Structure formats: C-alpha cells, structure tokens
Amino acid sequence: MLSEHQKKKLAQGKDNSLVETPQASTSKNPPQKVPKRTRKPQRAIRTASKRQRQSTPIIDRNVLNLNNDLHHTISSNAEVETACNFEGITRFEEWPTFSGEGEYNHMEFMKTIDMFKEHFSIPYEYITAILHSLFNNSEKKWYYKMRQDHGKHSWPWWKEQIISKWANDSWRFKMENSFEEAIFNIERDKPMSCLLKQKDRLTALHPDMSETMIHKRILKKCGGDLEYAIRRRCIEPFSTEDYINAMEDITTRKKNWKELV
C-alpha cells in the first residue's frame, strides 16, 4: 500500500507529464535582420551645400578698384555685377588722362570715356569715382576746386564744366586759325595724318557737322588742280577712306600727277 505522501508525489508527477516542455529549435535558418532606418549622412549634406555655394557666382567687389567712398554711390548688386563685367578693360592704365595740352585733348578725353561707358555699360557712379585719377597737373587742382565748391555731380555735368573751361571762345579762335592755315603740301605732307587732323579740328569745333560737309570743307582748302584730281577719283558721297585713298594715289604719282588730272 502506498502512503499518502507517495500518492501525492505520484499524482504530481502525472500532472507535470501533461505540460509540454518547449524544445529548442533545431532550424538552421539564421534570424532575420530588422531593417534599420535609412538616414542621409551629414557629410553628404555638407558636400551638397558646398557644391551649391560653388555654383553660385560670387561678385568680388575688390576688382572695381574704387576709392573709399564708392560704396556710397553704388548701392545695388546689379550695378556691381555690371561693373565686374568690364574688369579687364577699365584698368587705370587704359583710361585716358586729361592734361589740357594739345588742340583738342579735352574732346578726346570726353569722347573716350563716353565710348567706354557705351561699350561696357559702365555706370556714371564708377566714372565719377575715378575721375580724380584721370586729371594731371593743374587740371587736377581745378577738379578738386570744382568738387569742393559744387559737391558730387554726374559725368554729364562734368562734361559741361570741361567744355566751358577749355572749349571757350579763345580756344575756338585758335582752332579756326589752325584749320585755315593748314594747307596740304603734296611734297612733304602725309595724306592720312593731314586729313585726319583737319577732320578732328572740325569735329571739335562743330560736333554736329555731318561727315559730308567736313569732307567738302577740307577738300575746298586743297584748291585748284589738287581739288579737281581728288574729285575725279571719288564718287560723291565719299567716305574718309575714299578721300585718303585718292590722296595716297596722287602723292604716289606726285612727279607727274598734274598730267593725270
């Protein structure tokens, strides 16, 4: 006979046998990897930002070579960007200087600056900012005195002052005399230099005079056989090049040019 203790122990053993014990998995398949969240590397972001900055054009204001007060005159980025476009041509050594010497130095000075402005779209502020560097000797003193008395003005205003100062009645009288006294000598004068000098004198005196009228006035000064010989070689209206070519042809045959009239 089993004791009570043995009966309880036997009953407890039967209950445990009914409980399924988990068996270790014998599968050889490796555990699946849980996908991680993809994240853009911070370095790639910085590289992209750097590349974007490199592709963006940077305007270097130092290429303008302006004086200290230029930042008060050029206020918009568009004007600065435009000024950067003519960096190469507007170096100081390539700008004209004004000495007040010669028959029409002031006219050539203004004409060259106007050409720069038109061709390179140079703003007026740039011209007035470097204007003090383009005057020489006593002309620079005149500029400083005008600037002190009248303050800052645009380039058109300065052109009016230059014309008023140097293209006065005394200058016009001298220029008219120089034009009338200059007579082309076929034996010693060079056609191109003589013709262009006379043309520059008339252009300085009469800016609105047409090229045809300029040629007629110069041709009339030749007079006589020379005028007739030039007219025979040119078909009106003729250009300055036609005029020069005709005079070159005549001077080349100067020994017997009258026979070819």
Automatic annotation (TrEMBL):
CDD domains: CUE. It comes from the Eukaryota. Residues 14-30 have a biased composition (Polar residues). Residues 1-58 are annotated as: Disordered. Residues 1-11, 34-53 have a biased composition (Basic residues). This is Uncharacterized protein. It comes from Austropuccinia psidii MF-1.
